[in-house]
Amino acid sequence: MSGQEHIRNFCIIAHIDHGKSTLADRLLEITGTIEKRKMRAQVLDSMDLERERGITIKMTPVRMNYRLHETDYVLNLIDTPGHIDFSYEVSRAIKAVEGAVLLVDATQGVQAQTITVLSAAREAGLAIIPVVNKIDSALARIPETKKEIALLLGCSEESILEVSGKTGQGVPELLQTIIEKVPSPKSTASDHNFCALIFDFKYSSHAGVVVYCRAFDGTVAKGARLKFAAAGKEFTVIEVGTFSPEETPAESLSAGEIGYIVTGVKEPGVASVGDTVVEARGSLSALQGYARPSPVVWASFFPESGDEFDPLRHALGRLRLSDSAFTAEEETSGALGRGFRCGFLGMLHLEIISERLRREFNVKLVVTHPSIAYEVVTARGKTITAYTIMQFPDHGEIDTVREQWVSAELLSPPDYLAPIMLLLNKHEAAVGETENIGNRLVVHFEAPLRELMRGFFDELKSVSSGFASLSYRLLSELRKADVAKLEILVADEPVPAFGRVVARRRVEEDAETAVEKLSKILPRQQFELKIQARVDGKIIASRRLSALRKDVTGYLYGGDRTRKMKLWQQQKEGKKRLKASGRVVIPSEAFVKMLQ
């Protein structure tokens, strides 16, 4: 085992789709970690979803051995996600290493997330190695991209490396630079008790939770008694090892190394990213900076069939063992039955969890409209947190409503500034300073989080022809919200699954859209059906579905007309009774189509 002076721990940080995983493939290939015959694209992306979308969802560590100038080095790489939903995981990975490769796509240049992750890496004091990727592309703008990076870092353009993750060009030079510029790990405590930061974990049905960690002090081996510092749960180590990139058992895990610990813990919610593993009888506490990720987007999951509630509960429990960042609480809806109210880190996180439920557990889901949590002060002075339309008080019971806002940076070519400003105004953004990075504009603004969930990203890509990028972070304080409770009524009965909290400035537009869509989805009844949208006790949009017409006299022919009149009268009275009962059974297909 190499001493700490021969270990280099680093991560690759970049905007989404800038080639992190492809570069990692070449690093594994050139260091001989994986034989060429076993290589495949995105080898560190193990999930089907990652490979299909070309994005990294779960961070992946790998240990590489490399010989330079007759000296053997151990290079520990953490391939991090690039999407803003997983920024907390990226921050934990940054805490586990001493250096970072800042990767920028030569065809796209510096993007919004590039700035965000660079800022986090600088705050952590990491050695930054700037790299331009995809230099083999016919669309590469190498001089312009280098200029943007030099302005961003305040470095010379000559110090920026050029590589191709696809062909391997420049990768040996990158490995040498990592060894030369990334400092070796140093111990942080004097008592040498074992202490390791958890930056990821997974669940194994037979071994329980397997934590991926960076050891800062001490040594741990099989049979040691450890505990989760924040959770307080003790366990006996079943196995330790490193990543090559598959899990490879080792005799011990020592300070400076990155590896895994098999805990045997099979309880959900015990392990979490950012927690610290320490000796059970030691006095060490959790490392600085630990914070449990807080959900910011909420949606309800209901099974399409009531018989699938238990499989859904089991599936959510299993996912919670490997992803503690989302929450799930049981709830009941009069229209959709029993389900779960779930919290997520963002819209992509929601999409990934729902897709994993469908693929890995074969659960058919109805997913409600995503929403955020509102802090409501009632007329009586009571403060409540409303995650759902059912928890949101009626208009007369509300004094003030507060909501989450974000601070954001938007990068775009100057040509698209005018339509982007119109888009920001449409989504209630407060625009701040604008600055230049090379031939790009950086627009700083603040906006309500709910507005980013209204198709903002798709609209931004549309108005900028795909050239703009966005990064944001949550602001700590909540701000006053001008929102209203939009209820959808079917046959004069509210259907909570269709209702939501919307901005007052857009309430009429949303109401018209909702009732129009529902009128095309709902099946016609034996009586005329009213579909209405209600805000503050007033109906502001309405549609009517005409009654089904059945010819009850079709089988009669000839004879006295009074027989037909009698049947028509009976039909008329029957429809009156149906309408009076007001009972409309909404099929599950209608909920699925309405909530898509």
Topology (elements, then pairings):
Layout lengths: L6 E7 L6 H11 L17 H6 L6 E9 L2 E9 L7 H9 L3 E7 L6 H12 L3 E7 L8 H12 L7 E2 L8 H11 L13 E10 L3 E10 L1 E3 L3 E4 L5 E3 L2 E5 L3 E4 L1 E3 L3 E5 L13 E4 L17 E7 L5 H14 L4 E7 L3 E8 L2 H15 L3 E3 L6 E5 L4 E4 L11 E6 L1 E8 L4 H10 L3 E8 L2 E9 H4 L3 H8 L5 E6 L4 E2 L2 E8 L2 E2 L5 E4 L3 H15 L7 E7 L2 E8 L16 H20 L6 H8 L1
Parallel strand pairs: 1-3, 1-4, 4-5, 5-6
Antiparallel strand pairs: 2-3, 7-8, 7-16, 8-15, 9-14, 10-11, 10-16, 12-13, 12-15, 17-19, 17-20, 18-19, 21-22, 21-23, 23-28, 24-26, 24-27, 25-26, 29-30, 29-31, 29-32, 32-33
CATH class of the largest domain: Alpha Beta
Tally of distinct domains? 6
Q: What count of helical segments does DSSP give?
A: 14
The best one-word shape is: globular
- Look at the structure and give the mean pLDDT: 83
CATH T-level topology of the largest domain: Rossmann fold
Helical percentage: 25-40%
Main beta sheet: 8 strands, antiparallel
